[in-house]
Amino acid sequence: MLILDGRIGDDATADKSLQFAKEWLASAQWEVTDLRLSELEIAPCIGCFGCWIKTPGICVIDDAGRDVAKAIVQSDLVVYLTPILFGGYSYELKKAIDRSIPIISPMFRTVHGEVHHKKRYARYPRVLALGWMEKLTVDAEDLFQSVVKRNAINMHVPKALSDVFESREDPETMKQRIEWALSKVIGS
Amino acid sequence: MNETREHITVLIGSPRGIEKSTSARLARTITTDLETAKWTSEWFHAHHVLRSDEAWEELLASIVRSDVILFAAPLYVDSLPAPVIETFYRLTQAKSALVRDGLPPRMVSLLNCGFVEGHQNITAQSMVGLFSEAMGFQWAGGISIGAGGMINKRIRGALESASRALRDDILIPDDVEVLTRKPIMKPWMHVLGGNMMWKKQAKANGLDPKDLQARPYE
Description:
The structure holds 2 protein chains of 2 kinds. In chain A, 38% of the residues lie in helices and 23% in strands. Chain A is an alpha/beta fold. Chain B is α/β, with parallel strands linked by helices. Helix content of chain B is 47%, strand content 16%. Chain B has 9 helices and 5 strands. The longest helix of chain B is centred in the C-terminal third of the chain and has 18 residues, at 187-204. Classes of the chains: A alpha/beta, B alpha/beta. Chains A and B meet through helix 3, helix 4, strand 4, strand 5 and helix 5 of A and helix 5, helix 6 and helix 9 of B.
């Protein structure tokens, strides 16, 4: 189980979310790796498609971005922790996600009439995306959930769930919601 | 006579930059007509402004005197490329320094994706809309191009219509959405042609097409 911590600088909400998620997963006997992405050397994707047509499945940039992509595909569950920026992920988390496209195939197929990429691997991890804002708006909340759903289609995520909360959320309520979301995504 | 000319800031969000990217090529189809109409333009690369204090200051100065902000980028995993999100975030942090007279600039977003359906840009377009709102800009609308930025007469017509709207100081009209809504080819044709292209590129790199499905992390 992998936690991708997309915080930007000091963030008490990230601290609490990480703590609650790790405690619950440890109690459920999950082996957890958590990566604070801002502390890793991950260059932005350069859009070269080398990971598809030169070194299939491996990014041409040799840095921690490769390790994160490998860790994603070898996990059963990936948890995103992220402040919500413009309805989406933080740039720290997005940098890692942009660099994870080697785990899918360049080859196209149609899904419900829309073009998407084929799988590279037989199995992919489930995803739980936990996002927060100082003050939630309906637009940002809806968009965050839409992005997670769209990602699930494009990245072959078998089960994806998202939850959003405000930074000032009562810690006990936040804990309960994170635990509920984890049990739900792990579920059947 | 001291004539004030209209000004457009063009922000490119592709890692390939201003010279080589599809995003910049598409943006030029909009700015060329505006430059003919005596608009001034300044171009910036999101990835570069994050690394250069000088370029960052020039971007802020350009935004302050802009009538229009044109943002052009590729779709990256249903969203904007990470450096674009960081640029947007830093701009919202610098917002209080962007003091200007008159109306805020209009912001238009021109996104392209590798899928044949331009509508797959929709989540990323909404993000640009939220950025525009956070900055206090006037959201003029988004233009979504599919098929890796390939354009035909119809799509070119949409871009020209958008350019006219910016020149005439109106929002992006509905006909732009109507003209770009229909993919330039059938999805099955895109799948067939796209897959042939990947195999051809693999061969050019000395690979067997079967290698495209390699599973190095299994």
